[in-house]
Known about the structure:
Elements: E1 5-7, E2 13-15, H1 23-34, E3 40-44, E4 50-55, E5 61-68, H2 74-89, E6 98-99, E7 108-112, E8 115-123, E9 128-129, H3 138-155, H4 174-181, H5 188-208, E10 213-216, E11 225-227, E12 243-246, E13 253-256, H6 258-268, H7 275-289, H8 294-321, H9 325-332, H10 334-341, H11 346-356, H12 363-374, E14 387-388, H13 406-416, E15 424-426, E16 437-438, E17 449-450, E18 453-456, E19 462-464, E20 469-473, E21 481-487, E22 490-497, E23 499-500, E24 508-509, E25 514-518, E26 530-536, H14 539-543, E27 549-550, H15 555-561, H16 581-591, E28 606-610, E29 613-616, E30 620-624, H17 637-647, H18 659-670, E31 678-682, H19 685-700, E32 704-708, H20 717-720, H21 724-727, E33 739-742, H22 759-776, E34 781-787, H23 802-812, E35 816-820, E36 844-847, E37 858-862, H24 864-870, H25 884-899, H26 902-923, E38 927-933, E39 936-944, E40 949-950, H27 952-964, E41 967-968, E42 970-972, E43 978-981, H28 989-1003, H29 1006-1009
Parallel strand pairs: 14-15, 16-30, 30-41, 32-33, 32-34, 34-35, 35-36
Antiparallel strand pairs: 1-2, 3-4, 4-5, 5-8, 6-8, 7-8, 9-11, 10-13, 11-12, 15-18, 17-27, 18-26, 19-25, 20-21, 20-24, 21-22, 22-26, 23-25, 28-29, 29-30, 31-37, 36-37, 38-39, 39-40, 39-43, 42-43
Amino acid sequence: xxxxxxxxxxxxxxxxxxxxxxxxxxxxxxxxxxxxxxxxxxxxxxxxxxxxxxxxxxxxxxxxxxxxxxxxxxxxxxxxxxxxxxxxxxxxxxxxxxxxxxxxxxxxxxxxxxxxxxxxxxxxxxxxxxxxxxxxxxxxxxxxxxxxxxxxxxxxxxxxxxxxxxxxxxxxxxxxxxxxxxxxxxxxxxxxxxxxxxxxxxxxxxxxxxxxxxxxxxxxxxxxxxxxxxxxxxxxxxxxxxxxxxxxxxxxxxxxxxxxxxxxxxxxxxxxxxxxxxxxxxxxxxxxxxxxxxxxxxxxxxxxxxxxxxxxxxxxxxxxxxxxxxxxxxxxxxxxxxxxxxxxxxxxxxxxxxxxxxxxxxxxxxxxxxxxxxxxxxxxxxxxxxxxxxxxxxxxxxxxxxxxxxxxxxxxxxxxxxxxxxxxxxxxxxxxxxxxxxxxxxxxxxxxxxxxxxxxxxxxxxxxxxxxxxxxxxxxxxxxxxxxxxxxxxxxxxxxxxxxxxxxxxxxxxxxxxxxxxxxxxxxxxxxxxxxxxxxxxxxxxxxxxxxxxxxxxxxxxxxxxxxxxxxxxxxxxxxxxxxxxxxxxxxxxxxxxxxxxxxxxxxxxxxxxxxxxxxxxxxxxxxxxxxxxxxxxxxxxxxxxxxxxxxxxxxxxxxxxxxxxxxxxxxxxxxxxxxxxxxxxxxxxxxxxxxxxxxxxxxxxxxxxxxxxxxxxxxxxxxxxxxxxxxxxxxxxxxxxxxxxxxxxxxxxxxxxxxxxxxxxxxxxxxxxxxxxxxxxxxxxxxxxxxxxxxxxxxxxxxxxxxxxxxxxxxxxxxxxxxxxxxxxxxxxxxxxxxxxxxxxxxxxxxxxxxxxxxxxxxxxxxxxxxxxxxxxxxxxxxxxxxxxxxxxxxxxxxxxxxxxxxxxxxxxxxxxxxxxxxxxxxxxxxxxxxxxxxxxxxxxxxxxxxxxxxxxxxxxxxxxxxxxxxxxxxxxxxxxxxxxxxxxxxxxxxxxxxxxxxxxxxxxxxxxxxxx
Length: 1014
């Protein structure tokens, strides 16, 4: 607050003398005038006033402000009127409320050392100033804007003040304040940034007189806005603090309404890697409460930037004159922000704000679209029209090409464009897989979307101008040739990248006349010679220069800033639309059962996979740590070739005789120990487990099944009944009478821990007791079924000796032993089959997911004796199980696992993965346990390592945040708090490093750090 000001020789307002009241005297005033006795004083900081927090014996707090001023001074009267007005107009807004004196007045005055001091008591507002928070989530920034909007609404009916002295932070004086202190800024780059920004402010001045005006707080900076310390104080479950206070109305005045949101947006940009995104959240929040006009939105960014300059140069001067810690703290983060802000074109900021507020393009932009649509080209320099070159991630162009191989892509492009004719067109705002990269949040989001259209041309091919124009800027290295055009009285620019031999600045270029030639391209350029063309409404946007590609999140912004040049360039073909993610989700909701849920609150739209990566419609890549289905990698070329070859020859059902089934089952059985040799081929793991239970029940003549608590064995009616993961979960009906659970052999949460060398034997003994009990009361089991490592149950690695002990007990009771290898088999744990790690041989093995690398192929393998006992005359037939195409794919998968050494890779990379995660565990307290076997790992998240409280909510938050960083993870387990890790077997150490770094980054975020209870 500024109450009394003097002026220095530079013309800038300076705080007047303060002269604080001694504590005993303040106590006396509080007791005498306000009836507040026995309160403990806690001095607070302040630029001018004496600010004190007082606390009573019962914990009640008040805020006390002592101001060196007369009670009837204009400043004091104005501030009190403001607080009283807000109490009446926005009573629920968290601003200080004046506490009346015993006589009902809003202040008391006292003379000390011959000077009058005004004492006011106000309600205490809890929370922390935003400047002290390490992180400002988007939702908090939006709430900041909403609070500013509510404050503006509350002040909108207040009359302008009279007689207030000027002060340093009056936005109307921005140019004066900055110029008065700029001499103190020694850094040339900083001065240049300030002059750039103040140039925007100067250009805005004529428009300011037309903007709506109101009484303003005028200083909604991050030190004057409080957020509740409770991570979810408003109880809406989003974990974001609420705005709990707006303080210090001492700088309030009457001015341009847009300045209110601009000041908040300006300070929101401080300490942000992406300042524009932060400002957009504040602006959107304000607009949702108090809609801004188009002219106001255009003014916000220049005003916000100018306010930061006022802050930085003023405090730089003050620090130079009297080095103060407070002054240094005010500029430490502001100067880096100014450097970033000065690099952002104001028109880009305006469009970003319009998009954030849900507004359509401006009238001027709409008019330009109309002019371009109707423009009649003179000379038609691009006849015939260029052919569409689809570079989007789902394009067929990439199906048989490694898009990282520039020469291979170029050859494919030449083939698509018919060799020497080579005339293609890449549409405006289309995503390209050639620009793709791993998804990252904020400023690190890959720029995969091309701005403007690109002509693919022959080397040195002449390029003509579609419209008459004047060369305004000559493209140097990395910059475009800029042409200014005037059509139907509307002025706009076109930008041309990649031209050689272009005309000089000032040259007039008639429609149809040459602009230059397609430049020579490097051999490593995947597209060859090309010219990229953009249309821009303003000279500043065209000469900034504009980006050639932008992140997908900026696509809508650039659709407002840069119209499609397709018609100007003779391109009339419309590329086939790819359903957007919202459309796909809408269809799913309408036509697919709700029980078939998709991953993620905001899913991505996947259109391609290759090796260990997914790619979405925008070319953003995601590391797949989740997919044990695509066992040898997404779109593995050898698997694809095997399927294609066989589809061209024969596909039929397995009652016919064909060589593929013989070749495949021989290879499959060769991976198994004796006496497992008879194969039933089916389509899914659920089918396989269903058939295994049918065999066990028929062969033994019994109905009862022993399973492990928390297990999942499939989704048919029969196997759901032996899957506690389902029948104990939401909507489950509990275990059938024929299902009997044994305890999970969990060494992290169970009775026998990692420190118990006999844990396997003890868990097996407990399981044996269950088998003995049900056998003794006339319910002998037909089978004991267990995954060789529990997947959905929480990635539980069995202690040594566990399966051996339980198998022995089961067989002693006359039961068959079934190993479910659907999730963990085919080399994922190191050996071909997980049960080998426990030194056992089951009676029946079930297999699924990895066998077909995503193709529906599964199997049941058993002994000859059991298979013959199952054959009672009733035929078993599966229409699609073991068809020639499935067998060809299955054989290819087994060959790749063996030839590429993927089992050895699972051991090596899996071991490195486990060590890396355990190292991360040492510095991230949310990680309670890491368990691993080969390339099947689990990271259990807990809020307290002592009590092991499951961090279920945090696990799902980790999932969303990892997705934003281009890594696919998802929780499972009894408490849904275990991050399951089961990637394609081609996962390498560099992928491990990427995963661990991303998880470290996510677990270090404040919203997850705050979840740790001890």
